[in-house]
Specification:
The protein folds into two domains: 138 residues, Rossmann fold, CATH 3.40.50; 185 residues, 2-Layer Sandwich (Dihydrodipicolinate Reductase, domain 2). The chain is 30% helix and 24% strand. The strands form two sheets. A seven-stranded mixed sheet has the order 3-4-2-1-5-6-7, sandwiched between helices. Bound molecules: adenosine-2'-5'-diphosphate (A2P). The site of adenosine-2'-5'-diphosphate has 17 residues, from helix 1 and helix 5. Adenosine-2'-5'-diphosphate (A2P) binds next to helix 1 and helix 5.
Length: 338
């Protein structure tokens, strides 16, 4: 089997570290691996398959010689460097929001739309974490009967805001336990420990946040259906890993909960955990570090005719980011694009 020259840009970050773990645990065919980050990380070493690899500084020079690059260093770095890597004949799988809504850039969740990948599209966008876990559950239902409307409330873990955000929750929880003064919030606008913050990213003119509108636009693009109407409320919660979502959908024809469960049991990347009488349902503590999206609490939405309600949980750093990125790379190989 052919092996590939791989780079991870933002390797030291919360998602970058998971990208390394996914490449290793999924036994991705790596010929060589270069780890790139900012000058702050110069001199650091990271371990891949038992070997220490130095972290190098991202530059026009270190952007050369790769076949696949996984980017997770923020939108500004992606805007600047993804085209440089692509010009050097490298496929870039970008975890930031920089390219997602560009019409010519595929926005891919392999279970849903790997057909969007092609040889001439060197930059590929990895969707927003909350959108990815939602669409892997929506697609098998949409295939039974067209989804007309989605209403979703998210409960998003702090790791979605990066490594420093996890440290912030940890520091606040420790301060609370020791009865010490709360540290001043830096990553979040307010204390996140023992709190909920109904704001992720900035507010837009229509009073939705940018994160909420990402869910609206990205769902339409990935599902290839502009007519699906989506309304989201995105909330940051004091959970380290795994986002949870309460989802309500309306379909053209009625889908019974039994039929939905049956379809989801067969769906790739999805695990049904739905046995309420035995208190079995997805929870973030169980979903953390797992490479699937969990769905449970599947029931009829009694407030409308053709409605279903369910609860979706997945590790935001894995299926929501690093795992989906590596699965896109795997799809490039499977589809003989690279
Ligand atoms: P570094 O650790 O050297 O700052 P997170 O999302 O967890 O905050 O991580 C962000 C990732 O993006 C880190 O790996 C970080 O590297 C990297 N990064 C941030 N700024 C730059 C930059 N100017 N050039 C390259 N990598 C960067």
């Amino acid at each position: 089997m052919k092996k590939y020259k791989v780079a991870v840009v933002g390797a030291t970050g919360a998602v970058g570290q998971e990208m390394l773990k996914m490449l290793e645990s999924r036994n991705f065919p790596v010929e060589s691996l270069r780890l790139l980050a900012s000058e702050r990380s110069s001199g650091k070493k990271m371990v891949f398959k038992g070997k220490e690899i130095p972290v190098e500084v991202l530059s026009a020079e270190t952007a050369k010689g790769h076949e696949i690059a996984l980017f997770s260093a923020g939108a500004a770095i992606s805007k600047e460097y993804a085209p440089v890597f692509a010009k050097n004949n490298c496929f870039v799988i970008d975890n930031s929001s920089a390219w997602r809504m560009e019409p010519d850039i595929p926005l891919v969740v392999p279970e849903v739309n790997s057909s969007a990948l092609s040889k001439d599209k060197k930059i590929i966008a990895n969707p927003n974490c909350s959108t990815i876990q939602m669409v892997v559950v929506l697609k098998p239902l949409h295939d039974i009967s067209k989804i007309k409307r989605v209403v979703v409330a998210t409960y998003q873990a702090v790791s979605g805001a990066g490594g420093r955000a996890m440290e912030e929750l940890n520091a606040e929880a420790v301060a609370w336990a020791k009865n010490e003064p709360m540290p001043k919030p830096a990553k979040f606008p307010y204390q996140i420990a023992f709190n909920l913050i109904p704001q992720i990213d900035i507010f837009l003119e229509n009073s939705y946040t940018k994160e909420e509108i990402k869910m609206v636009n990205e769902t339409k693009k990935i599902m290839g259906d502009d007519s699906i109407r989506v309304s989201a409320t995105c909330v940051r919660v004091p959970v380290f890993r795994a986002h949870s979502e309460a989802v309500w959908i309306e379909t053209e024809n009625k889908i019974s909960p039994e039929k939905a469960r049956e379809a989801l049991l067969k769906a790739k990347g999805v695990k049904v955990q739905d046995d309420p009488s035995n208190k079995i349902y997805p929870m973030p503590l169980d979903a953390a570090n797992q490479q699937v999206t969990f769905v449970g609490r599947i029931r009829e939405d009694i407030s409308t005719d053709n409605g279903l309600a369910f609860w979706v949980v997945s590790d935001n750093l894995l299926k929501g980011a690093a795992l989906n990125a590596v699965e896109i790379a795997e799809a490039l190989i499977e589809r003989k694009i690279i």
